[in-house]
Write a structure and sequence with these properties.
There is one protein chain. The protein is of the alpha/beta class. Among the domains are: 203 residues, P-loop containing nucleotide triphosphate hydrolases (Rossmann fold, 3-Layer(aba) Sandwich); 155 residues, no CATH class. Helix content is 58%, strand content 16%. It contains 19 helices and 15 strands. The protein has a 6-stranded antiparallel β-sheet, covered by helices on one side. A 6-stranded mixed β-sheet has the order 8-12-13-3-14-15, with helices on both faces. Helix 9 packs antiparallel against helix 10 and helix 13 packs across helix 15. The radius of gyration is 45 Å and the shape is elongated.
Amino acid sequence: MLKQLTVRQFAIISDITIDFKEGMTVLTGETGAGKSLLIDAISFIIGDRASSDMIRSGAEKAEVIALFEVYNEHVLNGLQRLRADDGNKLVIYRDITLQNKNTIKINKVSVSLQQLRDITKHLADVHSQFDTQRLINPDNYLGLIDHYKPELLRPYLERYRQDLHLYQQSLQSMHQLEKSKKDLLEKQEIYRYQLSELLKLSLSVDEETTLIQETKWMQNFDKVFRDLNEIKQLFEEHHLLDGLYEIKVKLEHLSQSMSEYETYLAKCSDFYYEFDDLSMTVSNSIEKLSFDPLELDRMIERLHTIQQAKKKYQMTIPELLEHQAYVQSVLDRTDHFDELLQKAQEEVKKFYQIVVKSAKEVSIIRQEIAHKITHQLGTVFQELVLPHTIFEITFQPMEFTTPYVSSVFTENGVDIIEFMITTNPGEPLKPLNKTVSGGEMSRIMLAFKTIFIQSQQLETIVFDEIDTGISGHIAKQIAKKIRSIASSTQVISISHLPQVVAIAKTHLYVQKLEIDKRTTASLRELQFEERVQAIAEMISGSTPSRAAIESAKELLLN
């Protein structure tokens, strides 16, 4: 339950701290005094979005701090996961700054807005006029049912979503294959021409480099031949190898007597063998050396052909070879496309049957939950003086036409539902959003809140004028129902209905004050006589009659 709420620099609220008690707390006061602002502050602390418009004029930031006493297992487990558990104590801090550098903390641990909502959805619920609009909006009906027994539905919905993902993947693969086939048919002739051209080229990775080197020396044949012969002549005329050999023998003799010549001996030996190798290489090269003008022309022409292909395709040799392999693989698939497509279609059909089965299971569970809701609502409608009300949740028959169209499936299943109601005997069921009056809607909304509080074991419920449009005997029944809720759940309510105000355990009065020429909201708890006066004013106006005062006393005492 909410133990304490501190609100600072929030619209016209300067600084207010409220200590809440068990049971029911009612907020009353003049119009515009700030009652709804306090409800907004509670909504903000449990996850409503922040807006800098909330900051009091002249302030840098607004702050809201709430202290809860928690026993709900979902909340306690969530706090442990966040490493923010502190026994049964839960402190939530939020601020809004002009620079949008907002802070959210749970027991001093910084959290995201989504993490805050995950915790507080099991903690408290705030009813507002927006909730009523949500109730009569068919787009929200599915969420209302799923929210009633989430633990019961969750495993079925999770399995359905997994199956839906696999089905959508298979469908996407099939569509990609179909697109590839269409694209290929459009490019087939181009690809066949390219493949033929590239195959004729018979490219290899190193060919261009080899051709460049070979054409280079053939174009310089005379110079190469002359240089090789001159080297050979130098070896032969100057007897270089013989001279090196003699030096090597002399160094061998010297090194036996003078150790410093051992190093020169080693070097001389290396020189000798290297020069011997060079001499043999030069001789062999001269013997093999030949010049073929036709071969040179062929190599130049081949090199030109390769360079033209590179220029045409704007690719390097490795890229051309890679493109050739790609085109070959794509064209190879042409002969097997129908087979591949048929296999993809079979995959789609398989996963389609699986997701249909999962969707039907989700729908069956939803219908069971819907039956529980309508049954419980029937009892609550009787208590709220709606004795002739019949409420049904109808499910549109599921239609599965073709496995190749996925639009029937959504993340939440395939169910399309409608809330149908009649409040008058003999009248047919009609859609909820088209048939119910304001006073009836308040009671229907209270009925929904009642069963959802029970199913979710909420510890705090906040009503922002849920009794709008109610009077007379019905007001008394509304009060009894809210009092029944307050017997097991903390209730905080704004009300202008005397019967509802009177059942509250705590009565807080909100008023506007002018301090230092600025309007600010003020709050105080009313005692018995003050409550009598406030309720009497609700009954007969600002100057209540004696009868109104007596009625107010009777309401409070009873």
